[in-house]
Amino acid sequence: MTSDPGDSPGSATRERRRAKGGRRRNGEPLTAAEVRSLARDRLIESRLTPNAISMTGLVLNVAAAVLVTQRLFFLAGITFIIGSVMDTLDGRYSRMSGKGTPFGAFLDSTLDRAEEGIVLAAIAAYFAKYKHDEWAVAAVVIAVVGSLLVSYTRARAEALGVECKVGLANRAVRVVILSIGLVFAEGASLGDFSLLKPAIYAMAVLTTVTVLQRVFHVRAELNRTDAA
Predict the structure, then answer these.
(1) pLDDT of 108-141, one tens digit each?
(2) According to CATH, what is the number of the domain 47-227?
(3) pTM for the whole thing?
(4) Coil vs helix vs strand at 212
(5) CA-CA distances (angstroms) from residue 38 to 23, 127, 158?
(6) Inter-axis angle of helices 171-183 and 196-227, nearest 10
(7) Lower CB count within 10 Å: N or C terminus of the chain?
(8) DSSP class of residue 161?
(9) 191-207 residue pLDDT tens
């Protein structure tokens, strides 16, 4: 009986090599889904960890804060966006790869809060030093406190057994608003725009509204549970 060449010991290795080259054994190109699957498998097999992605996000956000203090707003915005994308990827990669740990989840959540605060603190310093705008500085402080409370109310509600994802200004929305404010800040070389201050005021208002939304939501859910 002749053996199938595809069953030989080296066939799997040869197939992987062909796949790395973007083609199957018969020379046909891989589909987009197959390329994504291959890339995912290679990534999972690598030494990359979710914590490494989280730390990279932290470094990028610190870099964005430094760029803000130098009034390099466009570069700060791009760096902030990339750092925020890393913050999103670490959780997804953790679930996809199975490399996640309880400490990793704790670290991810903690760094998310720290990164947002670091960038906003740099913006407050900019308004204080270069603009002498006390109202804008106060708005930054409100935005920082509000963003922390948005996260805290969800964590505290879930500790009580109540799912709490309601509200306008979740993490993704805040990232979008702040990114627009930085990229289109005064002197960012993208036209005659000055959207950083409006972005900060929007964050201050929306985070405050979101905290109130979550407080009322939790109260309603707990009252419904008590009534049942």
Answers:
(1) 788 888 999 999 999 999 999 999 999 999 999 9
(2) 1.20.120.1760
(3) 0.77
(4) helix
(5) 12, 48, 37
(6) 170
(7) N
(8) T
(9) 788 999 999 999 999 99
